[in-house]
Amino acid sequence: MPTFDAPDGTLLAYRTRGDGAPLICIPGGPADSAYLGDLGGLAAHRRLVLLDLRGTGRSAVPEDPSSYRCDRLVEDVEALREHLGLPRIDLLAHSGAANLAAQYAARYPRRVGALALIAPGARAVGIDITGETRRALALRRKDEPWFPAAFAALEEISRGTGSDWDAVAPFFCGRWDAAAREHHAASRPANPQAVARFAAEGAFDPAATRTALAGLEAPVLLLAGEFDLNSPPKTVAEFAGLFPDAALVVQPGAGHYPWRDDPDAFTATAAAFLAR
Length: 276
Hints:
- The protein is an alpha/beta fold and 276 residues long.
- It contains 10 helices and 8 strands.
- It has helices spanning 70-84, 97-107, 131-138, 147-159, 178-186, 192-198, 206-213, 233-240, 258-261, 263-274, and strands at 3-5, 11-17, 22-26, 47-52, 89-94, 112-118, 220-225, 246-251.
- Helix 1 (70-84) crosses helix 2 (97-107) and helix 2 (97-107) packs across helix 7 (206-213).
């Protein structure tokens, strides 16, 4: 697995899949990038450069734990761009990594060729998801066999009396079968400190990020899963409204991992956008 040095000397690793023009891919979590796989076949169209963020996968644990903070991770992405010798990068980010990608685009707008935010988190731009939004979306799955137990757990979390996020995992998938359960387990973050410090105080400046993104010239794709409780389509649509050149796509029947729920649909959308 190839490696490079972050600005503070932390050794970071990445893996590549496919051929063609590089597409830097950042996993959510922060978790090992292995759960992204080949992004539903997108590796047939682009060379995926899958970054393991510091302290995850095969990247080293940093000496300074405060460097896990989202805004500081921006410089790791910039170091990868420099390592690859690219004047500009096409950047794809999933879930919470969209907060990192948004801050990278805000700090280095001229380094971004295209930006794809998949099932994006939106804390970096100050968009909150209400319990009612999640509840209304969850009720659309009421005919699923797993619904009663998952919905009861969701209600407890919404009331602040529960914290069993594993019990609500079916809401994050377009279908809850053996493959989805296996993938969910594999995509769990393994470094709790990296998770806890990612959104530490000072990690986000929503007003400044919004202002910067309003002038971003690069095209942006925001793709939401129809049933994604983590990144509801309503929230993703609000996020899309912050960019001057944004395409919003809601993938039918998909959850938080749209490249798994319908690989062909996901790949067709992403490949067409990146080919613009």
